[in-house]
Write a structure and sequence with these properties.
Strand content: under 5%
Radius of gyration: 19 Å
Helix content: over 70%
Order of helices and strands: HHHHHHHH
Number of strands: 0
Number of helices: 8
Shape: elongated
Distance between the termini: 55 Å
Largest sheet: none
Structural class: mainly alpha
């Protein structure tokens, strides 16, 4: 979708909610990936996703253009706030990433059973590794790689400077790389010892 198309759909949707379907179709995969990664119960994730788009439709008249990616940043800010509310509501102080439940978009029903097992194990390991990062770095990495956002958009959502986002991203990825390497080396040593 071009910027002009997006602006036109937003203009139309302010008076005709049926026009919002174009925006929904365009942004749903990214919002879905982000929310499903942060909210580990599929049913709860679906509820949060529905609430994101419901709030977007209701608040569209208050939306203000600031730059090229304003609308994406606005939607992800809604999603971020709803995820924070979700964890507050359930009295979860930290975002736990221990669940092995995989988001729906990660499931490949046509894959061979061996490949599915490898994908599940890889996803479980990455989720566990991301869970070892600070909450801020977890959020930056999930917005970047599951939400598909640029650093500037992430900065706007989280209320940070763009350079701070870049630093969290860089350090978070380095931490993940180091922890993955250490984990892999430890597993190799255990196998050799047996």
């Amino acid at each position: 979708m071009t910027l002009e198309q997006e602006r036109e759909y937003i203009r139309q949707a302010r008076t005709d909610p049926r026009a919002f379907v174009h925006l929904y179709d365009h942004y749903f995969p990214r919002i879905h990936a982000y929310v499903c990664y942060r909210v580990h119960s599929r049913q709860d994730a679906e509820d949060v996703i529905a609430e994101v788009f419901f709030k977007a439709i209701r608040g569209l008249r208050r939306f203000k253009w600031r730059n090229r990616n304003s609308f994406a940043a606005w939607l992800f800010r809604i999603a971020h706030n709803l995820i924070v509310d979700y964890y507050r509501r359930y009295e979860r102080v930290e975002l736990s990433l221990e669940s092995d439940e995989r988001p729906a978009e990660m499931t490949n029903h046509a894959a061979l059973p061996e490949r599915v097992l490898v994908q599940q194990e890889t996803f479980r390991r990455m989720r566990a590794l991301i869970g070892t990062l600070s909450p801020r770095r977890q959020e930056v990495i999930t917005l970047k790689f599951f939400g598909g956002l640029r650093n500037k958009e992430i900065a706007g959502i989280l209320g940070l400077d763009e350079r701070t986002v870049a630093a969290h991203l860089s350090r978070g990825l380095q931490d993940l790389r180091d922890r993955y390497t250490a984990q892999t080396q430890s597993e190799v040593l255990e196998e050799v010892a047996v």
